[in-house]
Amino acid sequence: MPFNFTLINCLKSNLQYATLKTLSLVSISVMTPQQTVQELFRTADCVCFDVDSTVIRDEGIDELARFCGKGDEVKRLTAEAMGGSMTFQEALKKRLDIIRPTASQIRQFIATFPINLTPGITQLVKALQDRGVTVYLVSGGFRCLIDPVAEILNIPVSNVYANRLKFFFNGEYAGFDENEPTSRSGGKGLVIRRLKEQHSYQRLVMIGDGATDAEASPPADGFIGFGGNVIRDEVRKKAAWYVTDFQELLTSLTIQAK
Predict the structure, then answer these.
(1) DSSP state of 56
(2) d(CA 3, CA 173)
(3) pTM summary value
(4) Omega of the bond prior to 114 within 30 degrees of 0, cis?
């Protein structure tokens, strides 16, 4: 039987068309790592923010140290800790052993030191909450300093995960609660894992400026590095999406809403 070249050519054309169509669909569906995180953020059901140098412009422990007359010694250790050169628990203990704040000093600090919110964070938190996104503050800082920040941003204090200072009956410094997960390296990831288990969040995004924030993804589904107050090269390299202004995050939500 002679070959039907017309039929063969037709089959070849159909095969080529199908192949090109498949390749076209693949090229459309594949996103870059940055686009993947951007899409996760736009569809997130939960967003966790670091606090120091992210939600607020300062490092709370540095400001407390300065207030207590120990600023220079502690600032150097903070830089080392945020860069990832030592475990967070080690850095926290060393810094607090230098400061040794009393309960009275903590009260005075809270009463006199202004809360310096990062520009755009109030609008961003509200925009997320208006979309039904649950917002948490997950910090290696101290709850006594962070709860007032949460109240300003209308975040329930029950959504704050941070460290607790301990004092003796006379108000002298007695250490910190080492059972709090955020008192050690990997602690933020542990908090996020628990949140996902307890609330079944499907698209949880972590936003922060430090090494402890970057290492929390996974279990966070995505990580956004923030450099609006301080840029840490180690963190920028690890972040698929790195921003220096919260307006960029707000804009991404607005674009998606349209």
Answers:
(1) B
(2) 93
(3) 0.80
(4) no
